[in-house]
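Hey everyone, long-time lurker, first post.

I ran two proteins through the pipeline my lab uses and got sequence/structure pairs for each. Pasting them in order. The first:
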Amino acid sequence: MSFEGLIIIMVSAAIVNNLVLIQFLGICPFLGVSKDMKSATGMGLAVLFVMFFATLVTWPIQMFLLEPNGLGYLQTIVFVLIIAALVQFIEIVLKRYIPALHVSLGVYLPLMTTNCALFAVTLMNVQKGYSLIESVVNSVGAGLGFLLAMTLFSAIRKHIENSDPPECFKGAPLTLIAAAILSISFFGFSGVIENLFG
């Protein structure tokens, strides 16, 4: 595939088809960890890391082990096990070397094992018929899009905390309204891919 094609895949995954804001996948950590910028960035980077390495492992297993041997029905189990192993590795590393980030991510770090965004990316790479390079570019784009959504929403939540809304909007209602407005703003990028290199 051409360099332009890889850029289109990355921009599409990161912005136009953003996992969180357009496809509404991975909402649990998006809402739960975005209160603090450091935690949001840490979670975004952890998801990017897991997406990248999960793709490097799941794509060859799917193409060279599962499909040739008629074991495609094991895809879900195999992909979830690989993602779980990678998440456990990240948890061990964070606990050992960055304990403050490990504590701030709290329960959301082990919940990455069942994060539908991680599973969806590895599954979409196979379903779209991407090559290994295209799959890795798509995963990195999706991970960058997740990181972008987390950091943007964390900044918005910081402003929300410093505001004085009416009592009925305080807390979760205003947070959900802000998330909806951020999501709607990303719908403005639809059509960008068709005109990117036109």
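...and the second, right after it:
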Amino acid sequence: MNKIKTIFMASTLEILVALCVGSANLLLKPIYYFWFYNVLYGILCSFLIPIFLLRKEEHVFDFLGIKRLGKKQVLILAVFIAFSVGGQIIPIMAKGGLIPWNLLPMGIVPLIMTTFFEEFLFRGFFQNIFEKEFGTITAILISGLMFSFYHVGYPKFRTFEDILLLSAVGIGFATAYKLSGNNLIVAYFVNLPNAFVTYMLKFEQFPKMTMHSTIASIVTLCIIVIVFIVLVRAHR
């Protein structure tokens, strides 16, 4: 029965996340985008709901993988970043292509925020609850697939090729998370440089990054920090 509940809960949350992202990309006015993307998709579905569902866990931060980095974690982090980032940049530079670095500054804060939501939800929450019920390999595969399917909310990521590629990328992030000893910091910093490079190389597929999105992301991250502080104090 726990397995059925887990599947139903995860499926429902995945659909909600995709709907919120899709609504945000349909209603592109800054205020609508903020409510559907930053608040509903991010703060509510990807952060507060998982924490609420894990409220009975005795060591919720350990369960989510919020741990310090050790030598093993740093090594895994370096290897995965080298492959994910180098695999995209090196072939382009070898052919004499240009990397549009000028696009990056406006995307830094929004991508820092989005990467947090992705890793907190898909690795810290989904991967752990599925591993608890179905085992490691199944959890890695499901986490990767769910990571790719939520991108259907982004209109320009809906091709079969993109979904297939994102599944492979998501499985890579999930593998890094598991190899590191379920360390969410490793998963986050594997994903983040990859997000920066993907944005620069495929910026036309992303929502337009503006000063509005940067300010909204700063506000959102401040809310997340405040919630974390409250939770840590309550946990102690």
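Reply from user beta_strand_b:
Welcome! Quick read of the second one: DSSP finds nine helices and no strands in the chain. The chain has a mean pLDDT of 92.
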